[in-house]
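User: structure tokens for this one?
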Amino acid sequence: SISANDIIMSAICEMNGSADIFAFDRSIRGVKDGVGKSAAGNFFIEVPFEKEKGQCPFEIRKILTSESGSYFDTNEVPLMPFLNGRVGRITSLASVTHQATFPGTEVVCQFPS
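Assistant:
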């Protein structure tokens, strides 16, 4: 089943007209060999994926639950979008918003421009 996060990520992919592909960071704890679920440290990989696939929340869920932890196979990631600056980034700003909140306020949503 899909989550609200899958729906939001797919909406961002659909709305953005300037990116050819998108990428998000994914924790590799418990996904990659040798990295346990409780491993300490920053164990993240960048997961680039096709914009068209990202427009469907079911495809987002499929990417997130894949055994490999990635969308493209080795040596399949297209280079030109990275060289041309046409990569959309989907990221969690939870740690930033925690520092940016002020007494008496609550961050509901943050969308970086």
